[in-house]
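Before relying on records like the one below, remember that each one covers exactly one chain. Contacts with other chains, cofactors or solvent are not represented anywhere in the record.
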Amino acid sequence: MKDERFDAEGFLQDPALWSRRLAQQIAADLGIGELRQSHWAVIGFLREHYLTTTGTLPWEGNLCRELDLVDDCVQRLFGGPLRAWKVAGLPDPGEEASRHMRELMPPRR
């Protein structure tokens, strides 16, 4: 059964529908596992940045430094920025941003 809250790519269509419980469900579906304090810090940063700017993607290095985490924190915690964006319950960032986020993901083996 299709969940109408999500688009065809798995992005939550309305960020207002997001909850911590839903984030845990999305993370489990993506194989990320249990969300820990550092995950929640990144999620909170992404949501705050998205909701207070024009929906832009923050630069990962700035995000990680701001949170006092290792430089590749998004990669280590979520397996890439696109997956972090989904867990944060943010809508499709658009073709250009999605392409950029995909380029930052490691190649599949």
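The mean pLDDT is 86.
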